[in-house]
């Protein structure tokens, strides 16, 4: 596994697909990405069938993050929400995510319970409270290869100027990667890009508050990392609705078999080839 920290210091945008379960993680892992992004929205939806509204616990999420990190060769950035509480919780969360094999943790400045960053009604904690969380996260990690991604959700409720001030404070507190959530125009994104020297995150949520830009546009604006948290689960939901609709309407998949992922290839994706090889080796 290559160093994500080193990759982000190099030119060129890192595009990280959102993974939300082990199927999505394994598919993405074989496609040559420099990083994967464990989406909190998608992981909570997939695992619990609940909205991303602060309902998942640290235990819920560190288990998902560990399974994805250990089941993939590609560095994984994982959503750590607010750190699941106060400063001691942040310390516990950072230790747990790092031990789980995650390459970086995203921490945000929302009040508890948090909400998805492209939904309304988000409230943020005072800047100094988040600064303390970042400092604790930085001093807690065992290796500086484990990245602290600091996100502010202040833009939607408090405006772009306050969000920029917060990002500057989180930069000074020692965050490795800076994430101003949900800017609402290309002009705002340009302002973010020219204001900071550290790697910057662009959150590309289809149907969200931020314009979806091309790789070339994001690079020109100064972003180092583009995450696509919703793309995978939105695509999966569309495909499931299509095939389940066929079953419901026609009672069979006989007319759409060629559109499905081949069962033999899926079995190999899940590791059955290793099972078969093991059984042959140890057969009586």
TrEMBL record:
<dbReference type="GO" id="GO:0016833">
    <property type="term" value="F:oxo-acid-lyase activity"/>
</dbReference>
<protein>
    <submittedName>
        <fullName>2-Methylisocitrate lyase, PEP mutase family</fullName>
    </submittedName>
</protein>
<keyword id="KW-0456">Lyase</keyword>
<dbReference type="InterPro" id="IPR039556">
    <property type="entry name" value="ICL/PEPM"/>
</dbReference>
<dbReference type="InterPro" id="IPR015813">
    <property type="entry name" value="Pyrv/PenolPyrv_kinase-like_dom"/>
</dbReference>
<dbReference type="InterPro" id="IPR040442">
    <property type="entry name" value="Pyrv_kinase-like_dom_sf"/>
</dbReference>
<dbReference type="Pfam" id="PF13714">
    <property type="entry name" value="PEP_mutase"/>
</dbReference>
């Amino acid at each position: 596994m290559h160093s994500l920290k080193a990759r982000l210091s190099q030119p060129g945008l890192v595009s990280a697909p959102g993974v939300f379960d082990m199927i999505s993680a394994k598919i993405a892992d074989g496609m040559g990405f420099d990083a994967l992004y464990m989406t909190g929205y998608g992981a909570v939806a997939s695992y619990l069938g609940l909205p991303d509204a602060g309902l998942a616990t640290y235990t819920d999420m560190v288990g998902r993050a560990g399974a994805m990190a250990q089941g993939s060769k590609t560095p994984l950035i994982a959503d750590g929400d607010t750190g699941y509480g106060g400063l001691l919780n942040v310390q516990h969360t950072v230790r747990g995510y790092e031990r789980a094999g995650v390459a970086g943790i995203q921490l945000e400045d929302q009040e508890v319970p948090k909400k998805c960053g492209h939904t309304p009604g988000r409230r943020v904690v005072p800047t100094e409270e988040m600064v303390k969380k970042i400092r604790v996260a930085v001093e807690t990690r065992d290796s500086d290869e484990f990245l602290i991604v600091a996100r502010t959700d202040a833009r939607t409720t408090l405006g772009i100027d306050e969000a920029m001030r917060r990002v500057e404070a989180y930069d000074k507190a020692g965050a490795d990667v800076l994430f101003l959530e949900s800017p609402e125009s290309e002009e705002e994104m340009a302002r973010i890009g020219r204001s900071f020297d550290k790697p910057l995150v662009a959150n590309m949520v289809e149907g969200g508050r931020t314009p979806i830009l091309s790789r070339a546009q994001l690079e020109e604006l100064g972003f180092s990392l583009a995450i696509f948290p919703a793309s995978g689960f939105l695509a999966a939901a569309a495909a499931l609705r299509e095939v389940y609709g066929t079953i419901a309407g026609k009672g069979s998949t006989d007319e759409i078999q060629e559109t499905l992922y081949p069962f033999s290839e899926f079995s190999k994706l899940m590791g059955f080839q290793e099972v078969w090889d093991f059984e042959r080796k140890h057969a009586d």
